[in-house]
Amino acid sequence: MASTSKKVLRMTFNNALGSAVSFTLPEPKVDLTAVQIEAVMDQMIAKNIFLTSGGALVSKRDIKIIDTTTDDLYEIPVA
Asked: What is the pLDDT of residue 79?
């Protein structure tokens, strides 16, 4: 049985209505720091380049690096 792992960076913002808006990026750099990510998030807010159904992004809400391991427990038998 095979196992696969993947990491994603999830940046979550508040929009003008107070709703959460997340951007998920695959395979973040290993040496990425919270300070670097926060600086990018600040730029995304300041440049107002993303418009959501609840308006512009107005503040940072959360930053997570999510590491997921999937174990494939069944393989289709070869006839």
From this structure: 79
